[in-house]
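Cross-check.
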Amino acid sequence: MSRKSPFSRLSFRIMGEKSDHLNLARGRLVLITAFFMLCYFVVGARLIDATIIQGYLSQQPDAIGVDDQKKQKKSDAQKSGFRADILDRNGVLLATSLKTASLFADSQKILSPVETAKGLVQIFPGLTYGDTLKKLQSGKRFIWIKRNMTPTEQEAVLNLGEPGLVFDYDYHRLYPQGNLLSHMVGYSDVDGNGLAGIERSFNTLLNGSKDPLRLSIDVRLQHILRREVNRAISDFTAVAGAGVIMDVNTGEILAATSLPDFDPNRVTSNPTAPEMFNRVTLGVYEPGSVFKIFTTAALLDLKRTSFAKTYDAINPIREGRFTIKDYHPEKRPLTIPEIFMVSSNIGTAHMAQEVGTGNLKKAFHDFGLMTKPDFEIEEVGSPIIPNPWSEINTLTASYGHGIAVTPLQLVGAVGMIVNGGVRVQPSLVMRDKEGKKSDSGIRVISKETSLKMRQLMRLVVSNGTARKANVAGYNIGGKTGTAQKNVHGRYVADKRMAAFVGAFPMNDPRYVVFVMVDEPNPNKTSYGYATAGWVAAPAVGRVISDMVSILGIHPRRDEVDISEPLKQFIHSVKGEH
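Predicted model, tokenized:
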């Protein structure tokens, strides 16, 4: 029996080991190949789903889950504070939403609470070191540090190099015009909820749409009005003021300002602060002699009374414990144009007696002065009406005492008087068709009465108490009103409201301009007076002077002054006396 060589046994063993290694390598290769094939299969399936299946489903209106996804996206947008833009009538941006970074901390990941707290206090001066350090050591996973940072602040936070500081992105409401339209546009909170003005009234619409909301406001006119109201407040050291510009044919509010005002980008935490109060829509005031417009219109429309009719303005009227007298008494019988031009309380009260309580109240109601007006913002005040309404209330209300309305109501009512006698509804949101006239079809006074009132209002500016509102070539008309303020049920002699409402051009009126100044004081240029003719009328004149340049309204120096016949009539009456 032959024995195998040791070399042959060694060779066999080596060949066996090689075979085992080859089998192991082959198995690994198969496993790796299977893994990569699986990866290719998953990627391919995902591509098919993303490009073909989801593409097909997205085109199907009733596809399962698609509507839910859209709703979720919309909900996410709302939660993040995104709101549609608000624009003026010319497309100027009044409010918009910008995506900004907010900062929170995960205190469990803060590496150096002490150094991080010091750095954050330097970046955000509003933070306190002790409180911030306490929060960063609390162990809480989510701690708000700062909402809506500026890019500079975000860069400074990044430079801290702290992994426990995390950015979250949402939308921040921005008001590019600042204080200019704060009371009308309003403002929203950090979560995108409207809290005042248009932001509040159209909260759902602004949160649910990307289409901008366009207002009737013209920013150019708003700048003029705010500047001149502010100037009147400053010149006469007053406490507040308000102004409105309205298109008398459409009711569109082109400008509205209430001063003092506020910056909606930095809203105070005190909602009762004076600057938060909207005097145009929410404040109710006794307008004084401006109300004589409505009493005179009621008389002319109801009684068809001739301008030549005279009323006693010699003796004060005594009714119970009340006495009605004139500021500058003429001490003679006065015709209707004279009563209106010199602003006689006695003559106007006699006219109200002729109209009668029931008819006068109905006229005031028709002019929109007896009920809370409908308007696009919710901060709207209700008029204060005498209750019960006695005979003395008829007399005092005829010249604007004992009854209080908002400037918004007053402007709307004057618009009806001068536009031919048709009711208009003041509005702040742009109509579908720009410049479209009111289609209410509701007549409050006749065309003839409207023309007579325009003549009387022009007479006040050309020859009466509002001469400082005159602008050559534009036939401005209006009425002054100076009323003592009623403070806690008592009239205070040295506290007054000075107001003037003007309209132009009086031959074919297009605009009403109103300015009211609260508690003006005399100055050197006013010779000791702080009445509407010295305070509010010049402000309206300056507003109109700049308005016509912006709107391209050219002067008509050859146009007949509609008050000319009344001037000649008054001259002849005075000649008789």
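The first strand starts at residue 86 and ends at 87. Residues 371 and 383 are 6 Å apart (CA to CA). Passed to J.P. for a second look.
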